[in-house]
Amino acid sequence: MPKTKFPPLAAGNWKMNGTLASLKETEKLMRMLDGKSPACDVMICPPFTLLFPMGEQLGDSIIAMGGEDCHWEPCGAHTGDIAAEMIAETGASACIVGHSERRADHGETDEIVSKKAAAAHRAGLTAIVCIGETIEEREAGRTLDVISTQLKGSVPDGSNAANTIIAYEPVWAIGTGHTPTTEQVAEVHAHIRKELAGIVGEEEAQGMRILYGGSVKPGNAAQLMAVENVNGALVGGASLKAEDFFGIIEAAYL
Ligand code: PGA
Question: Which residue, 28, 51, 118, 165, could crosslink 90 as a Cys pair with Cβ 3.0–4.6 Å?
């Protein structure tokens, strides 16, 4: 099993959920993790409006923070968009790019995702680059081809194990309660590791974290996180409640 350069990562993606009242969940999570030493890094990616208050709240706790998306330009006439530099200023250390919901809702192509990942790097953020096949693509036997294309198109020059994390999220597993079998996860993650070698070089590919995402819950986390080449989880729904997110960390990494 390749030993990545960094500990696994349990990252919560709050999506378009959360108001100031939701900071009680991060407060609770901090309390639950107090005095514990999980064998993983922990991160929450809240909506933009919560980045500053959550950054202040988290302070120097073990919980890191990330954005959910960024624009590729550092500033300019892009109404409604947020630059990676703005996200970095909140105390965030990472940014998700290319989530399938953004690819679907906003027509984001691999080329756009690559530019966004490069912007995250420019701002000193770790880019969490999301890829994953649709159910039609899987049923047509095209999963590995789709993954190869997305990886080649979405991972920019200059990516390495320190500034980039890959998140494999089968679109059909997101928010559905369906998860791939451990064999299916193992197959895709091994393929990602192999393809990465051709993109970032063998050494960086071995060191790079590859997260699994899609209906990760306390009840399936241990099994999914034990799969070869799975170096953590990107968690949507189950990251919104401290008990559930802690349950995932506890099951897999405590
Ligand atoms: P889910 O979402 O855990 O709610 O399936 C995962 C994601 O979209 O990152």
Answer: 51
For 158-209, how does the pLDDT look when each residue is reduced to its tens digit (9 = 90+)?
999 999 999 999 999 999 999 999 999 999 999 999 999 999 999 999 999 9
Structural domains for the chain: 79-231 (3.20.20.70)
Which of 9, 13, 69, 96 for a ligand 1 pocket mutation test, highest count of atoms within 8 Å of Cβ? Answer: 13
Q: How far apart are CA 84 and CA 235, in angstroms?
A: 22
Place of tokens 């679907």: 104
Q: State the distance from the centre of ligand 1 to the C-alpha of 112, rounded, in angstroms.
A: 21
Q: Does the CA dihedral 86-91-93-94 come out positive or negative?
A: negative
- DSSP letters for 131-153: E---HHHHHTT-HHHHHHHHHHH
CA distance 63 to 17: 19
**No. of H helices and E strands in the chain?**
11, 8
Cβ atoms 187, 30 nearer than 8 A: no
Instruction: Write out pLDDT tens, residues 32-52.
Output: 999 999 999 999 999 999 999
- Give distance in angstroms: CA of 237 to centre of ligand 1: 6
Other CB atoms within 10 A of residue 139 CB? 11
pLDDT (average), residues 89-111: 98
pTM for the model: 0.98
